[in-house]
Design goal:
Layout (H helix, E strand, L loop, with lengths): L14 H6 L5 H15 L5 E6 L1 H12 L1 H7 E7 L15 H19 L2 H10 L1 H12 L7 H12 L3 H13 L14 E6 L7 H10 L4 E5 L6 H4 L1 H15 L6 E4 L3 E4 L4
Helix pairs in contact: 2-3, 3-4, 5-9, 7-8
Length: 266
């Protein structure tokens, strides 16, 4: 089961965002996840997998509903995500540049969000420029399949600028380090691209340090969208996580991009 976060993809704007221009919070996303679980998987064991903001959403769920984690969650994967201190990320920029960006970006995003129609026209007119920026912050490999790169571009370009402006403050406020304790003692996968400029791999290492029984996988030559850049690695480790939780039989192998099958004797 997967879903689009509020204001993304096919999910509608939150009522508060549409009516009051209220910024979304990671805590709200955690409550959204609880509502999805209640509606789609009200009973039985659960394995949670979250990439980037999805991983933060899982942490927010644990922070607000620790009893759900202890009673029903049997495994979790944190992929290219962070438990906090995102305000310190330099996005591959020099110190002077990142300090300038931090000063002006909140105001710029707010202003752009108020002129969303005009901005979206500008994004279309400068599509090639945006494509280069998206590729830099999504991938690290030089030989990324052009179809995969274009898929990432369409996905990111599909998020309106006013939605980006709504979400930006939530990342600086995000701190769910203590909530990670809810996942102690269960199978945990922590995976990240070594060259991730958005949620640097050091943030994944920090998560793994707090969950010493977790499997930490750092993927060389991979950026933020590691699951698109190296799908075979991510799928293999997720299949192993499912095996460790008992969700799939031991000896399952990965074929293609995401299917699992029982290994047959040679």
């Amino acid at each position: 089961m997967h879903w689009d976060q509020r204001s993304h993809g096919r999910s509608a704007r939150g009522v508060a965002q549409g009516r009051d221009d209220e910024p979304v919070t990671i805590e709200q996303l955690g409550r959204d996840l609880k509502a999805v679980i209640d509606a789609a998987a009200p009973e039985g064991p659960i394995v949670l997998v979250g990439h980037s903001m999805g991983g933060m959403t899982v942490m927010a769920l644990a922070d607000q509903y620790p009893e759900l984690i202890s009673e029903r969650v049997v495994g979790v994967a944190f992929v290219g995500t962070s438990s906090g201190r995102l305000g310190e990320v330099n996005y591959g920029l020099p110190v002077a540049g990142v300090n300038a960006v931090r000063r002006v970006l909140p105001g710029v995003l707010k202003a752009l969000g108020q002129r969303a129609d005009l901005v979206e026209k500008g994004r279309r007119a400068t599509a090639d420029l945006f494509a280069g920026i998206i590729k830099r912050y999504s991938f690290a490999s030089r030989d990324v399949d052009p179809a995969v790169a274009r898929f990432a571009e369409r996905m990111i370009e599909g998020t309106p600028i006013d939605v980006v402006a709504e979400y930006y403050p939530a990342f600086n406020d995000h701190d769910k380090t203590e909530a990670l304790g809810c996942f102690a003692g269960m199978p945990v996968l922590v995976l990240a691209g070594v060259q991730d400029l958005v949620t640097p791999s050091e943030h994944s290492e920090a998560i793994a340090d707090l969950l010493p029984d977790a499997e930490l996988v750092l993927v060389p030559d991979a950026g933020h969208l590691v699951m698109l850049e190296h799908p075979e690695v991510v799928t293999d480790r997720l299949a192993d996580l499912l095996t460790r939780t008992g969700a799939v039989p031991a000896g399952a192998t990965v074929k293609g991009y995401g299917s699992t099958s029982t290994a047959q004797p040679g």
